[in-house]
Amino acid sequence: MPEHAALPPAMARHAAPVAPGSQCVELRRLNHAVARSIRTLSGLGVLFVLAPFVFHGEFQITFLTLALYVTLLGVAWNMLGGFAGQYSFGHAIFFGVGAYAAAIVQVQGGLNAWFGWVAGMCLGGLAGAAVGAVSFRYGLRGSYFALVTLAIAEVCRIIANSISITGAGVGMMIPLQPGLAHLQFAGKLGYYYWILAMVTVALALSSWVRHSRFGAALAAVRDNEESARALGIDATALKVMASALSGALMASAGVFYLQYFHYIDPTLVFGPAVSVQALLAAIVGGLGSVLGPLIGAIALAVLNEIGAHLFGGIPEFSMVLYGILLILIVRFMPHGLARGVAPLVRRLRGASGRREDTAGA
Amino acid sequence: MPDPDHSRVAPATGDGPAPILELVGLSRRFGGLAALDQLSLAVMPGSLGALIGPNGAGKTTCFAAVSGFLALDEGQVRFLGQDITGWPAHRICRAGLVRTFQIVQPFAGQSVLENIAVGAQLRRPSRREALAWAAEIGSRLGLQRYFGVAAQTLPIAARKRLELARALAADPRLLLLDEVLAGLNPAEIDEVIPLIHAIRASGVTVLMIEHVMRAVMRLAEQVWVLANGSLIAHGAPAEVTRDHRVIEAYLGPGAAARLADGQP
Q1: SS3 string of chain B?
Q2: Closest to B198 (Cβ–Cβ): which among A10, A23, A30?
Q3: How close B193 comes to chain A (CA, Å)?
């Protein structure tokens, strides 16, 4: 077999005319994506760490804490729905598995809450892998996958409602033991920093997934599964992995919910409200973007407050506002707020960034 | 003198290299229709061959079966001496047998460079190396100016090249090209032909499905002609196109005789 490491002149001759340097821009953009993402995340991290020094009212801390909690739901959902393109309508499955596992470990097992957290995450990840394996192995996609997850969540709710280890319909209450050793905090600030830490890790994980080979393969599966398989990607295995990661993150949010409110019952954790919050944050913010869920969650939290102030008398009125927001986003900003806002951010940063981009190319 | 034990002589002991791809009695039915009917052929390493035949002859079905996208009813696919029958598509690709699709299937929302990088990362350990290799392959195929462009906005000629680039970036040993020239105008075809020559010259075995006969005549060293799922002729392009069975498969029964008589 002839060795032609250097390409035959035929190819060079037929290469399209190129504007000088332009071919490097995209390569540089992709190569620096991780660094850029880390810079943005660290900047945001610092802002959020300092935020309580400015917004120190109880109301403001609670607002930020719940916004970050919804961010975590959105990041978890985005892992499977955004990066792998598999829309679940039943992410409460993993949320509930995490919350119940942590509660059972503490209440029935008499163990420390930290074990509960670890057990919840592991079981949530396993549940994610199991739901993924069952669905993707048999080629379920699109609305079929959405319906199957919805059904599994409902089955989980019914089971938790009927068996004794979960406390059935009565629900479970964890003993009140404030202190870091028990993952409970006397003040709101402790919960704020705990959820901030979890969101930071989740966003870093998202950023890694988005810019890694794993993420590129996932995106390929999302955009065209046949082509991805033809290029050596084991689509089923990757989707199962994404589902496991997503499940573990979702379970983590479930554990937070348990520790924050001290009480869970089947409808609270396996009901559709959690699934809807998770997918709304991701879709409103921007599917498949790293910061989308954060932006989406803040938007939802603001909307929630507006709803509570204007229509406080009507329970669950925020759900109506959520619905309206979703319709508006899908109609006018199908790529979500993150993509809608990005051009503004770029304009604010000014021309300096652009000059830097072309100078080195 | 008939050889009673022919099967033992055929494998690679001694004269000549072993085939890189060997199809033995492939059959696949869709309901009552035999899409593939006892198809056997052998592709030699380093060769550039073409699979031709009228529409519905089973060419694309053959590619789908070989690359793991379609299960066979009967038959065996051997690649590099290994039985790959029934392997999943991704595993066949990792073994070095890479296909392209007749209807190009880019990762629509991603940039051209990201598209190529998906192929490139198969054998590159890091993202950075995959991107560098993707840029290299993309430049070889003349796609540089499109690197940052979303794949779905490309004109058809560039999409065809992208399909080629992605497959090539996965470092195939054998490349199955399903009508990479379809939909291109003559000038664009003339630009792609040297690219395919160059791919073969770089050591990649190429088997293509092609309808553009001008290109088949210029590219292929040998041609397999399929009709109704089975092989009806095999040989150099010039020989094959004179074959009566081939003419009749394309033009209908009796066409060869009428042509010979000079009647339309």
Answers
A1: CCCCCHHHHCCCCCCCCCCCEEEEEEEEEECCEEEEEEEEEEECCCCEEEEECCCCCCHHHHHHHHCCCCCCCEEEEEECCEECCCCCHHHHHHHCEEECCCCCCCCCCCEHHHHHHHHHCCCCCCHHHHHHHHHHHHHHCCCHHHCCCEHHHCCHHHHHHHHHHHHHHCCCCEEEEECCCCCCCHHHHHHHHHHHHHHHHCCCEEEEECCCHHHHHHHCCEEEEEECCEEEEEECHHHHCCCHHHHHHHHCCCHHHHHHHCCC
A2: A10
A3: 10
